[in-house]
Amino acid sequence: MEKYMLIDTHAHINSEKFAEDRSETVARALANGVGSIINMGDTMESSKHCLELTEEFSCCYAGVGIHPEEAFPMTEGDLIQLAEWTKDAKVVCIGEIGLDYYWEKDPDKRQLQRKIFIQQLDLARQLNLPVCVHNREAHGDTLDILKKEGKGIRGVMHCYSGSLEMAKELIKMGWYIGVDGPLTFKNAAKLPEIVQAIPLERILVETDCPYMAPVPKRGKRNEPAYVKYVAEKLAELRQVPFEEIAGQTTKNARELYGKLAKI
Ligand code: NI
After folding, report:
1. 16-44 pLDDT per residue, tens
2. From the CA atom positions of the chain, what is the Rg in Å?
3. 65, 108, 131, 190 — which has fewest CB within 10 A?
4. Sequence ranges of the domains in the chain
5. CA of 211 to the centre of ligand 1 (A)
6. Cα of 180 to ligand 1 centre, how many Å?
7. What topology does CATH give the domain 2-262?
8. What pTM value is reported for the model?
9. Burial tier of 87 (Cβ tally within 10 Å: 0-12, 13-18, 19+)
10. Which residues neighbour ligand 1 (ion) by CB within 5 Å?
11. Residue 137 burial by CB count (10 A; 0-12/13-18/19+): exposed, middle or buried?
C-alpha cells in the first residue's frame, strides 16, 4: 500500500469495458493508492449498477442521475426512484447531470437537457445532496441555470473545460473544479494555467474512466489507478509535493461529498 491516498471522484467502472476485469481494476486502484472510487450513473440502469457496485466493492461509492447525452422525459416516478437510491449510505451525490451541446445540436433535445438538468438540481436541493455536473460546450447555459436554479446547491464542474473567469465564478458559489486526463495532454489549452490560478482547496481529481486516459496512458482504456498521473501533473504545475496534492484533494472530496467514509 502506498503512503498517500487519492480518491477517483468520477469514474465509470460500471462500463462494459470493465466487464472482464472489474475486480482486477479495483485491485490495481487500491495498489496505486486510490482509497475510494465514485462511479457516476448516466441512465437509470447505470445508476442502479453503480449502486450495486458499492455493495460488491467496499471502496466504491456512487452518484445517481441522468446524463445529458442520455436525456429522456423524466417522470415523477423516475425522480422518486433516484431519491430512493440516494437513501443508501454510499450514494454521495446526484450525478452526472448537466448539458452537452457538443454532441447534441438539436434545439428540442437541448431544451430537454435543460429541463431534466433543472429537475435533477431540484431533486438534489430537496435531498440536500451535492451534484456532479457535466458541461461540454454549454458554458453559458450551464452557469445561467446554476445561478438561477441551483441556489443553495454545491457541486463540482467535472472534467473542467471552461475559462478561468468561469472557474472563479464557480468557486465564489462554493463549487469545485474537477480535473482529469486532459490536464496531462500537450494540447491542454488553458487548463494548466487555471489549475495554477485557483485555490488547491477547490480542486478534485478524477479519471472519467474508461475515457480520456492521462499521459502516459493516453489512447488506452482509462482506469481509477491512473488518477495518480493527474495528481502528479498537478503537483508539477503547482510545484508542491505529490503527497500534498493527494492529501488536499482527498480532503476536498470529503468536504464536497459528505457521505464518503472518513477512512
Ligand atoms: Ni463521466
Report:
1. 999 999 999 999 999 999 999 999 999 99
2. 17
3. 108
4. 2-262
5. 8
6. 11
7. TIM Barrel (3.20.20)
8. 0.97
9. exposed
10. 208
11. middle
